[in-house]
Amino acid sequence: METNSRVPLNQNSLGMKWKVFLSTIALLCAIFLFDRILFFDLYFLFPNETEWDSSPWYNFIYKTKELQSSKDKHRTIVTGSSVALYSVLPDELNKKEKLNTKYSFFSHVAMAPTDLYYYKENLLSTNPNLVVYLHNFADLQWEYMAKNGESFSFDERTWIKEFSSRYPTKTIYPTSYLKDYWNEIDRKSLSKLATKALFYVSRYRIFFWDPIVVFIDNHFRSGRKYHLYQGVLPKEGIWSKGWTKTTATIECKVQKDTESIFVQNKKTKLQFLFFENQHTLINNAPIHTQIINIQKSGWLDIHWKELNPSNLPWSIVKIQILSQLPTAKEVNLIRYGKDEEVGIRLAHFFCHGIQSENRSYSRASYWDDTRFVQMSVDEFQKEYFERMIKDAGNRKELWRLHVVREAKKNVNSVEFKPWSEYNRILEISEFFYQNQIPFVIVLSPENPIEFAYYKNSNWRKEWISHLKEQLTKRGQTVIDHTEVISDVRYFFDPHHLTYEGAKIYNSIFESSIAPIISKEN
């Protein structure tokens, strides 16, 4: 007897297809859910021990989440590029007893107006009572501007292409960028941005290991590998990479059994002088002196009990090199400009406990900056020329600064006309106006050496006039601080203040913002 097997076969086939389809959908949903929970939520619960100016994209997202999950009685958000990071010291401002607001950064390196435009909703979610945009001429993306007769033209096609491959675009706002420019970028960029828009693991893989590696280095290794020195600061100062000056006088807060130091030259002679307290240091009365000869270069362990076998209590040690000294250029601290002698390199947390608190937006004072103030103005100008201007067009690390410098010269012969990158600032202004959040633009200080290139240009006058006119319509403010720091030695480069310069500017910044805060309160 024959049976018709086709009907049940087709039914089984159809049922199997549905099962496969539903299983695939369920698997994709599970992957998206896992990706969201692990890489967007749980990942940022890991302790952040990364240091100032390291892992910028991780730190920016971490800081944004921190602000979004907390509230202050009154919060002032300082936003902008590295110009903002190097101009204001929120940690110092927040130490004051009578504080009308809490200052916090919403900033990362190379933040263009377009970046801030795409971040505006995220910034709004950080609960600001006041938004201060520290803005600079250099932020206006001059590498995409070309001089045509009496005006500039903006190369939007190149801008769209290159912005699609920038880290902020790929890491923080790929979906928004795709929505606006999907039909104007090449297939390769489209594919990359689409993947990053779908999966956080794809976005965050560029920095995924950063906080984990730093945590392991801090807690389970010798302290010989690090980004910035976090130990006790010697009285004479120290370079950010931990290199001392020719002498290092250190108040040893935590006297571990063993510390690590690095010596550059073979057959180095070191002298250790131990002092009981500040009084004996002032009187130059050490309780013990020990000289050691180190035959090999590199890292080595030192043992305090071996260096001070008397076991007399001490709190201060002075370390001196009695043999030939290396220089900053020899140990790769600097490449150009005035060279100077250095001493030894100290381990990460030398004479100090592990600094595990979040320091990703906390800036410290290092000799890298402090040395400029010790120079005469003439010495600094010569050093600055060698370091920042000489042959800048052919040095990769200075290429963008060279482009900005040339733009400053070119604006002297053109009239001001708004372009898309500039208009982003006006759109940001309108956004905060619509959301009833006070918005202030502060034109950050500029190095007088470089500001002179366009100080008296009609273009600059028209630019600021137009900016003020547009913001005034919305009851917002533009504050021009371009010239408030007149001493060139407080600038590291054309737009970034040294730590000492930022300390001076802090009070100027605060006094300018205070009346706006008072109006709200």
From TrEMBL:
Keywords: Membrane, Transmembrane, Transmembrane helix. The chain crosses the membrane at residues 20-46. The keyword Membrane applies. This is SGNH/GDSL hydrolase family protein. It comes from Leptospira limi.
